[in-house]
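Cast an eye over my tokenised protein here and flag anything odd:

===
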Amino acid sequence: MTGSRVDAVTSPTHNAPRRYFVDAGGRRVLIGLTPEETFEFERLDSGLAFGEAQAAPGGRDSWPDTGERRRVELYQKHEGAWKTWMARSRAEQRERFNLY
């Protein structure tokens, strides 16, 4: 996260990492997403933007609507970046931990 404060991602007690960071403009942004994508994801995730699912041919299954597909796309982008960030954070903690 260039230009970001990664320390804002962890809770004050350092128990549960948060999935947001504060960017250079002071905006709360999901790791791996832009501020605009974060806004879009939160809007879609709130459920206010969902439409009806479309019935698949044969009527047995349903396909998610465009909003749900976009929400999943943004979540997958964020989730991949978050997992990478967590792995790097753990590696850095191990490097700093030295008993000798």
About this structure: The radius of gyration is 18 Å. The chain has one domain: 6-96. The first helix runs from residue 35 to 45.
